[in-house]
Amino acid sequence: MSHWRMTRLSIAPILVGSMLAVITFAFGGVRSTKGETDVRPAGVSSYSQQSSGSIRFFHDPKPEPGIPREARDAGTVPADQNELKENRSNITFRTASDDKNYGPLRNVIHGPLMSIRIRYFDRESFDRARAESFLKKVLESEKGDTYTHIFWAEGLGVPAIEAYLQSEDLAYPGYLLVWSGRAVYQDPKGKWWFTAMPQMVSKR
After folding, report:
1. Alpha helices in the chain (DSSP H)
2. CA nearest neighbour of 27 among 166, 161, 158
3. Which of these, 194, 153, 152, lies nearest to 177 by C-alpha position?
4. Residue 119 has what pLDDT?
């Protein structure tokens, strides 16, 4: 039998620009215990007493590396096929539908924020206090470039921070992933934003 356990640690309110928010840390975990009865494999109606098969549970708190799959085509449309009629490869070309630079990340975050929930942070780079300070700097920064599509070429690894931003007047939170010098944000309405900013991560 498996049990999910959620732990929250409240941090004192901080002022994020003009946004007063409480940062909390929330981590999910799985605890597995061996039952006294037979374990039936999924999709199998009968289970042999002689079978050595079993169901195993594992939980990795890290988000997937790189930009979420559902965000990769955000802000783009298929390229004009008439211009690509000579292209005989299997490569798909897309073009940006909005070339506007929206400035720093703070410009596209709907405020004021009521709470910020950190679900994951890289423990090789931060402790909790450093993670809170780093995220505050990211949200307060007046520097950076933000577009509705991916505008950099390099790949990204596992995010340094994964967080949810809850606005006072919206039912659903925004979703934020932060790397060193990069951020990807899905606002409460489902729109994706991509930000390049000064690098702020330092190893502790």
Report:
1. 128-140
2. 161
3. 194
4. 93
DSSP state of 89: S
Looking only at the bridges linking them, the beta strands covering 19-32 and 2-10 are: antiparallel
Contact partners, residue 73, CB within 8 Å, separation at least 6:
94
Is residue 86 packed enough to be buried (19+ CB in 10 Å), middle (13-18) or exposed (0-12)? exposed
Task: Report the pLDDT value the prediction gives residue 156, as an integer from 0 to 100.
Answer: 94
Q: How far apart are CA 140 and CA 105, in angstroms?
A: 9
Query: What's the rounded Cα separation, in Å, for the pair 169 and 188?
Result: 11
Burial class (CB in 10 A: 0-12, 13-18, 19+), 151: middle
When pLDDT is cut at 50, 70 and 90, the band that residue 11 belongs to is very low
Q: Is the peptide bond before 78 cis (omega within 30 degrees of 0)?
A: no
Find out whether 110 and 18 touch, Cβ atoms under 8 Å: no
65 CB contacts (<8 Å, ≥6 apart)? 156, 157, 158
Nearest to 178 by CA among 129, 136, 128: 136
